[in-house]
Design goal:
Aspartate Aminotransferase, domain 1, 12 helices, globular, Aspartate Aminotransferase, domain 2, seven-stranded mixed sheet, alpha/beta
Length: about 375
């Protein structure tokens, strides 16, 4: 098997899985209980919180709220920030945000009667800073811009976004969806007010994530109940997930430069090999403007879904875009907003790499593509 869909999910690290297992079978106690084994679990969670805050660049571990993953973190960022605001003002999101941001923004428009502006992107998939500047004003109260696009790997200049906001919309909060960017692209959360992550995107368990909330902002939190997470996100803490994610964070932090290099080498090798096939177009930005783990490519004359299943028959697993939208019919909103012609949208494939992919796997994938693309094109013409 060659797995090249690591932006959908990653294989849980052995050490992360073993850590989670230990907190399910041995240290299985509810961290909210009063007896000593449970208090030990609480101490372990708080130590993990400190390490995660450090990995993010947060000022304090009190700025970290553990969640069930990226979707909850993104939802909580919106609801928790907007509910305490006396004046709802206007929201800005980019045209290519993940559905867990884009659809929430549209829901806010209806439920909270907020204004909503959509920031255009350029041909590389990054937010058009000139356009963003044109729609920023004192009426804006909340901006959400993704760190790394989940389909193309385009990296947004969050520092530049922040500077524009301070100039044109100084009271607005900035939320950054870091699900595809955390530990893959350098970033300091002090450049934003809220930051979302998901453990299964960097070899942690599924069902666990976190939201950074800068100290000092008015924040209502998420679900109510027993008052866990400083009364900001009630519910029994997922100790196995949190500690498993902690192991994955430690793994990345210890050797992130070499991990980035490995993913980038795989990306560059595949890009080089695909250059030998006619009518193949790379939709991702240049290497210095995109994340190391993502490469979006159009194979003109072959529908993306057809190529996906042809590769699946060879036990090579890729995607046509976001896994959250994989079962929905239609074009990619991301590629459409980038202004790509319809034939490139319909023939796009997303390759996403992990530190454990090898150049041998990449070359085998390229060999298969060189073999089957001409065949699939001939079949289409018939």
């Amino acid at each position: 098997m060659i797995y090249l869909d690591n932006s959908a999910t990653t294989r849980t690290l052995d050490i992360a899985a073993e850590t989670a297992r230990r907190y399910m079978s041995d240290s299985f106690f509810n961290s909210g209980a009063a007896y000593s084994p449970a208090v030990g679990c609480e101490k372990d969670i708080n130590a993990a919180r400190v390490r995660l805050a450090s990995a993010m660049g947060a000022s304090s571990s009190d700025e970290i709220i553990f969640t069930s993953g990226g979707t909850e973190s993104n939802n909580m960022a919106f609801y928790g920030s907007l509910l305490p605001m006396r004046e709802k003002g206007r929201i800005i999101v980019s045209a290519v945000e993940h559905p867990s941001v884009y659809e929430v923004a549209r829901e806010m428009q209806k439920v909270m009667n907020t204004g909503l502006s959509i920031a255009k992107v350029d041909s590389s998939g990054k937010v058009d800073l000139n356009y963003l500047e044109s729609i920023l004003d004192n009426d804006v109260t909340f901006v959400s811009i993704m760190q790394v696009n989940n389909e193309t790997g385009a990296v947004n200049d969050i520092v530049a976004v922040r500077k524009l906001m301070k100039l044109k919309a100084p009271r607005a909060l900035l939320h950054v969806d870091g699900v595809q960017g955390f530990l893959k692209v350098p970033f300091d959360v002090k450049n934003c007010d809220l930051y979302s992550i998901s453990g299964h995107k960097f070899h942690g368990p599924k069902g666990v994530g976190a939201l950074y909330v800068r100290k000092g902002i008015k924040f209502a939190g998420g679900q109510t109940g027993g008052g866990q997470e400083r009364n900001l996100r009630s519910g029994t803490l997922n100790t196995p997930g949190i500690m498993g994610m902690d192991s994955a964070v430690s793994f990345y932090v210890a050797s992130r430069e070499s991990l980035w290099q490995n993913m980038n080498e795989c990306k560059l090798q595949l890009k080089k090999r695909l250059g030998k096939i006619q009518n193949v177009f790379v939709n991702s930005p240049d290497t210095n403007e995109s994340a190391p783990q993502l490469l979006n490519v159009s194979f003109i004359g072959v529908r993306g879904e057809v190529l996906l299943h042809a590769l699946e028959e060879r036990r090579i697993y890729v995607s046509t875009g976001s896994a959250c939208s994989a079962k929905k019919q239609g074009k990619s909103r991301v590629l459409m907003e980038m202004g790509l012609p319809q034939n490139r949208q319909e023939s796009a494939i997303r390759f996403s790499f992990s530190p454990f992919n090898t150049l041998d796997e990449i070359n085998k994938t390229a060999d298969v593509l060189e073999e089957i693309i001409p065949m699939l094109r001939r079949f289409k013409r018939r």
